[in-house]
Amino acid sequence: MENVDYIIVGDGYAALFFAHQVIKNNKSFVLYSEGKQSASRVSAGIINPVVLKKFTTFWKAQEQIDFLKETLSEIEKYTGQNYLIDAPIHRIFHDESEQQLWLKKSSNNDLINFLDQNFAHLEVVKNDFNSGKVNQSARLDVNGFFIGLFSFLENHKYFIKEKFIYSDLNTADQTYKHFKFKNILFCEGIGVKENPFFSDIPVNPNKGHHIKVNLSQPLPENITIKKKHFLFPIHENTYFYGGTYDREQSHYEVDSSAVDQLTKGLKEFYPYDFNIEEVNFGFRPTVRDRRPIIGKHNEHQYMYVFNGLGARGILNGCYFSKSLYDYIEKGIPLHEEISLERFISK
What we know:
Blueprint: E1 2-9, H1 13-24, E2 29-32, E3 46-47, H2 61-79, E4 84-85, E5 89-92, H3 96-105, E6 131-134, E7 138-140, H4 142-155, E8 159-160, E9 169-170, E10 175-176, E11 179-186, E12 204-215, E13 224-227, E14 229-235, E15 238-242, H5 256-267, E16 274-286, E17 293-296, E18 303-307, H6 313-330
Parallel strand pairs: 1-2, 1-11, 2-8, 5-13, 11-18
Antiparallel strand pairs: 3-7, 4-7, 5-6, 9-10, 10-11, 12-15, 12-16, 13-14, 14-15, 17-18
């Protein structure tokens, strides 16, 4: 029997950012994943402190941005790569009223560091009313991040590529197969619905599609363009455009309506020919109040859940992984807005 401080179940942002906290603090662990394509792995990797529909920000945006940069620098020390891409978001304005609203909001204390007051005209794409740059926005190299982290975990024998079998978990002895653990953490996204210990947490699937397209006329800059969805280069003339939001569709197939929506959306501001090379989709684990769900099982006090990261999986996963670690290891209470306790009737 091998003793470990943690068993982590999952393979998305929640699992990997928590694994970083464990590595950083020299705790022993193993991570179980069967290697399926998670919502995190097909995500755009957008790092954005602004809600671009209404030009507002969100809870702890600046703290999350700062902590992400710090964390990625720490990860670079053992993977040899920094996965942060400096490619700011440019939001194309629909009309003059949006320009004026942007300028008005840019003076607000909570937005002054994010909304650039100097508008930019973008080449190649239609932007008759120019675009606004979101300062401190960027992208994560999603593919590089997951390849780099999993390579590190595999090389150091932290990664076990197999499905976690709940019935093999001995809750009395705190053992799973040949591991005896102090804590076990489930970071399963929508997969939590199959987890007998946390299946009742109020996480809802939000299906998102994106397309990879070949543009006949490439964009001249490595930026991220926002017009309905996000457009940015992946390699050579291949670009990512997405993603959609659908709370109704739950089947594991591509929705032609979502592809049509993306195709029409891109044609609205990209006036040249393009070919769709690939269509992908995933199910974001969302919560009605748009806050993560973090906490421990009411009976098994060594058992924890980290879920509900939603569309801001990178920022939420990174920032709140430390909150969870401090809760487990230092007894620091979780903020009531992210605690599982908020759903328990009192």
